[in-house]
Amino acid sequence: MTSFKSFQLELDTRHDKYERLVKLSRDITIESKRTIFLLHRFTSAPNGEEILKESEVKLDAVRQKIKQVAQELIGEDMYQFHRAISPGLQEYVEAVSFQYFIKTRSLISVEEINKQLIFTAEDREETTNTTSNSRDKQPHTWSLKVTPVDYLLGVADLTGELMRLCISSVGNGDIDTPFELSQFLRQIYDGFTFIGNTGPYEVSKKLYTLKQSLAKVENACYTLKVRGSEIPKHMLADVFSTKTELIDQDEGLP
């Protein structure tokens, strides 16, 4: 009975920790989505720099949530709790890579993402005589590494946001961005095709959605190139949305 009570205590502790991680992951997902919605205003907002600054503040708040996840996982095997935190990490990768693309027109690496997820804190020791103790601070570090699979799934989700950015850019009269996005998405798609069916199941599932996003952007570029001079700029976005609906119907999508 003593052994089983200790087993019960261990399992209850692990279950409680898992539930706390699920809640943190949900908060990370919500805040990351809000950051993505904010970044979509970059093309239409007159003060784009303000949007980027505000998005950085939001991402810093998300990183504080990830810091709490890292603290929960101290002394634990991360992969035992990976299913609890994976959705939040994927959404965070999507938000960070979207912001990075808007800034640099390139793809952020998993190493750069992990560099941002190393946290430090200083706990001051409570001493009555500060002069007698020179070490009044003890630095602590926490880190959480985004796995390659979470990174790939986040980048795959990024392609959908880039497709929406393409359509909104055309609606705002930006004709160059769709062609730039088309080349960028083609490079990402080529990279995913190298993985093929050898990667995890989730990655091969996302490949179909990625192909759809690429097709919609290429269709927008085709319309701009062939019929751009015929259609007024303020009507281009409507033409693209109509064509997108037709593509979805042809592929049997709701």
TrEMBL record:
<keyword id="KW-0479">Metal-binding</keyword>
<keyword id="KW-0744">Spermatogenesis</keyword>
<dbReference type="InterPro" id="IPR002848">
    <property type="entry name" value="Translin_fam"/>
</dbReference>
<comment type="function">
    <text>Acts in combination with TSN as an endonuclease involved in the activation of the RNA-induced silencing complex (RISC). Possible role in spermatogenesis.</text>
</comment>
<dbReference type="GO" id="GO:0005634">
    <property type="term" value="C:nucleus"/>
</dbReference>
<feature type="binding site">
    <location>
        <position position="161"/>
    </location>
    <ligand>
        <name>Mg(2+)</name>
    </ligand>
</feature>
<keyword id="KW-0217">Developmental protein</keyword>
<keyword id="KW-0221">Differentiation</keyword>
<keyword id="KW-0832">Ubl conjugation</keyword>
<dbReference type="GO" id="GO:0043565">
    <property type="term" value="F:sequence-specific DNA binding"/>
</dbReference>
<keyword id="KW-0333">Golgi apparatus</keyword>
<dbReference type="GO" id="GO:0030154">
    <property type="term" value="P:cell differentiation"/>
</dbReference>
<keyword id="KW-0963">Cytoplasm</keyword>
<keyword id="KW-0238">DNA-binding</keyword>
<feature type="cross-link" description="Glycyl lysine isopeptide (Lys-Gly) (interchain with G-Cter in SUMO2)">
    <location>
        <position position="243"/>
    </location>
</feature>
<dbReference type="InterPro" id="IPR036081">
    <property type="entry name" value="Translin_sf"/>
</dbReference>
<comment type="similarity">
    <text>Belongs to the translin family.</text>
</comment>
<protein>
    <recommendedName>
        <fullName>Translin-associated protein X</fullName>
    </recommendedName>
</protein>
<dbReference type="GO" id="GO:0007283">
    <property type="term" value="P:spermatogenesis"/>
</dbReference>
<keyword id="KW-0539">Nucleus</keyword>
<feature type="binding site">
    <location>
        <position position="94"/>
    </location>
    <ligand>
        <name>Mg(2+)</name>
    </ligand>
</feature>
<dbReference type="GO" id="GO:0046872">
    <property type="term" value="F:metal ion binding"/>
</dbReference>
<comment type="subunit">
    <text>Ring-shaped heterooctamer of six TSN and two TSNAX subunits. Interacts with GOLGA3, TSNAXIP1, SUN1 and AKAP9. Interacts with the homodimeric form of C1D following gamma-radiation. Interacts with TSN and C1D in a mutually exclusive manner.</text>
</comment>
<dbReference type="Pfam" id="PF01997">
    <property type="entry name" value="Translin"/>
</dbReference>
<keyword id="KW-0460">Magnesium</keyword>
<dbReference type="GO" id="GO:0048471">
    <property type="term" value="C:perinuclear region of cytoplasm"/>
</dbReference>
<dbReference type="GO" id="GO:0005794">
    <property type="term" value="C:Golgi apparatus"/>
</dbReference>
<dbReference type="InterPro" id="IPR016068">
    <property type="entry name" value="Translin_N"/>
</dbReference>
<keyword id="KW-1017">Isopeptide bond</keyword>
<dbReference type="InterPro" id="IPR016069">
    <property type="entry name" value="Translin_C"/>
</dbReference>
